[in-house]
């Protein structure tokens, strides 16, 4: 067997998700059956201070990758100039992705960028054009899409296991009273950071609709849905959206392409996720309705580990339902799979991932733009703009509270 190839990562930002991602990145890929690649972290940068990057490296990198050392930087600009970095993981709030990705692309660095990809579709389109022009890999890190569970469900749909897909519903509710759970500076409610549920949580509900309805079709048959939406921009302190509901009318159904499919995507702060979700009484958070059966995915929908296929039509060897459990091997949180995908694409010289093509990221951003237009939701011009470079607001110094949602 040939030797695994190494990919050297540079981590941009040192916050919550940068920590989770880096921990997952340095779990031995063999524990999940991946033998062709090895991930290394060769640099990390903090916009707050070099000391913060040093602390990050000593907590999450040192001692976890043999003799390989990582360099700490006190600015993102230094990170993107490091010749020992192959690919940048952008882990800043989504308000900053456009500026941060432009910076990386300008310095010829491929990118894996956290969700939501940008604030609006215009920004996403420019990033794609820049990546294309510079021949650089660029991918949105919607981690759930790369889970073996998601891949298995997409295949079941394509194989016609539940017949023609006619309707999909997906909900992400986190049961958080924003005034108690999030400081006004927190990215979940802070409109300066594109806060609100649409871009933070609604993106997952949309991910389930798109990956099961749109992505399961052959490329040439994929068509953007018509969109209707409503937003509750009622967060009492910031006016951020606390709840959002989107109805999507997709013109082509999977697998035969004969009819239409409706999608209902919801996300909310105050309403609760299913308290019984780890028990037999759990109610599904994603339901994929076919004319011969249904696939039910149990939440949280960003990190599901269980789904069920029920059959409405009796067929040969069909049980009334099949339950499927998935594990997180090697103790990973689940972000390693997207990292594996990005690394493989990068090594193969690809510019985009088949699992999350640029056109699909853009269509999803356009969907959210449309919902915002209908609901009258705008963010400050400094983060909506496509101008580059912009002097972005620095990180707020105070420490904000977060809720544990896992
Ligand atoms: N895939 C997933 O499961 C998750 C994805 N996310 C996504 O990851 C991104 C980051 O979220 P998360 O890590 O939770 O956020 P955090 O607030 O924990 O961290 C964000 C980091 O970005 C950097 N940063 C740069 N500019 C600013 C600014 N103006 N305000 C605040 N931070 C700034 C800071 O790092 P430094 O000071 O080191 O530069 C900060 O620590 C978001 O886009 C979010 O949607 C979040 C949670 C889960
Ligand atoms: O991406 C995310 O997934 C998990 C949630 O807890 C978090 O708020 C969100 O940003």
What does it look like?
Helix 4 runs parallel beside helix 5 and helix 5 runs antiparallel to helix 10. It is globular and about 60 Å long. The longest helix has 18 residues. An 8-stranded mixed β-sheet has the order 8-9-10-7-11-12-13-14. The protein has a 6-stranded parallel β-sheet with strand order 3-2-1-4-5-6, with helices on both faces. The two termini are 38 Å apart. It has 2 domains: 163 residues, 3-Layer(aba) Sandwich (Rossmann fold); 178 residues, Dihydrodipicolinate Reductase, domain 2. The C terminus is likely disordered. The chain has 406 residues and is α/β, with parallel strands linked by helices. It has 11 helices and 14 strands. Strand 2, helix 2 and strand 3 form a beta-alpha-beta unit. Bound molecules: NADPH dihydro-nicotinamide-adenine-dinucleotide phosphate and the ligand O=C1OC[C@@H](O)[C@H](O)[C@H]1O. NADPH dihydro-nicotinamide-adenine-dinucleotide phosphate binds next to helix 1.
What distinguishing features does this structure have?
six-stranded parallel sheet; 406 residues; Rossmann fold; 11 helices; eight-stranded mixed sheet; 2 domains; binds ligand LJPVP2WV; single chain; Dihydrodipicolinate Reductase, domain 2; alpha/beta; binds NADPH dihydro-nicotinamide-adenine-dinucleotide phosphate
Bound molecules: NADPH dihydro-nicotinamide-adenine-dinucleotide phosphate, ligand LJPVP2WV
Low-confidence stretches: 397-406
Content of β-strand: 15-25%
Overall 3D shape: globular
Number of DSSP strand runs = 14
Number of domains: 2
Structural class estimated from helices and strands: alpha/beta
* Known CATH architecture of the largest domain: 2-Layer Sandwich
**What is the helix tally?**
11
Spatial ordering of strands, largest sheet: 8-9-10-7-11-12-13-14
Helix content: 25-40%
CATH topology call of the largest domain: Dihydrodipicolinate Reductase, domain 2
Mean pLDDT: 94
For the report, how would you describe the main beta sheet? 8 strands, mixed
Look at the structure and name the CATH superfamily of the largest domain: Dihydrodipicolinate Reductase, domain 2
Q: What's the gyration radius in Å?
A: 21 Å
Distance between the termini: 38 Å
* CATH domain class name of the largest domain: Alpha Beta
């Amino acid at each position: 067997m040939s030797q695994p190839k190494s990919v050297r990562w540079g981590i941009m930002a040192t916050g919550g998700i940068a920590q989770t991602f880096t921990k997952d990145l340095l779990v031995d890929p063999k524990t999940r059956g991946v033998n062709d690649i090895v991930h290394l972290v060769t640099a990390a940068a903090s916009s707050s201070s070099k000391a913060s990057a040093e602390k990050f490296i000593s907590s999450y990198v040192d001692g976890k990758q043999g003799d390989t050392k990582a360099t700490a930087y006190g600015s993102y600009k230094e990170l993107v100039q490091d010749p020992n970095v192959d690919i940048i993981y952008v882990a800043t709030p989504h308000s900053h992705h456009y500026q941060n990705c432009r910076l990386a692309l300008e310095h010829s660095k491929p990118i894996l960028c956290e969700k939501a990809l940008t604030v609006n579709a215009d920004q996403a389109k420019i990033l794609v054009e820049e990546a294309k022009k510079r021949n650089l890999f660029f991918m949105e890190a919607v981690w759930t899409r790369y889970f073996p569970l998601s891949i298995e469900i997409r295949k079941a749909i394509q194989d016609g296991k539940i017949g023609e897909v006619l309707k999909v519903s997906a909900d992400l509710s986190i049961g958080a009273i924003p005034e108690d759970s999030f400081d006004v500076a927190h990215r979940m409610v802070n409109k300066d950071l594109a806060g609100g549920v649409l871009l933070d949580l609604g993106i997952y509900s949309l991910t389930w609709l798109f990956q099961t309805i749109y992505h399961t079709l052959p490329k040439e048959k994929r068509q953007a849905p018509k969109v209707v939406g409503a937003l509750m921009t009622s967060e009492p302190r910031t006016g951020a959206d606390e709840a959002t509901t989107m109805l999507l009318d997709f013109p082509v159904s999977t697998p035969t392409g004969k009819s239409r499919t409706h999608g209902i995507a919801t996300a909310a702060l105050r309403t609760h996720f299913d308290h019984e979700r780890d028990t037999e009484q759990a109610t599904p958070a994603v339901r994929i309705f076919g004319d011969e059966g249904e696939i039910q995915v149990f939440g949280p929908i960003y990190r599901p580990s269980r789904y069920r296929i029920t059959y409405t039509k009796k067929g040969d060897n069909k049980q009334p339902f099949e339950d499927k459990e998935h594990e997180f091997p090697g103790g990973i949180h689940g972000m390693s799979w997207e990292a594996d995908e990005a690394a493989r694409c990068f090594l193969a010289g690809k510019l985009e991932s088949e699992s999350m093509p640029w056109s699909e990221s853009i269509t999803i951003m356009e969907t959210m733009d449309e919902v915002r237009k209908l609901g009258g939701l705008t963010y400050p011009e400094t983060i909506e703009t496509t101008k580059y470079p912009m002097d972005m607001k620095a990180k707020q110094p105070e420490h904000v509270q977060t809720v544990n949602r896992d």
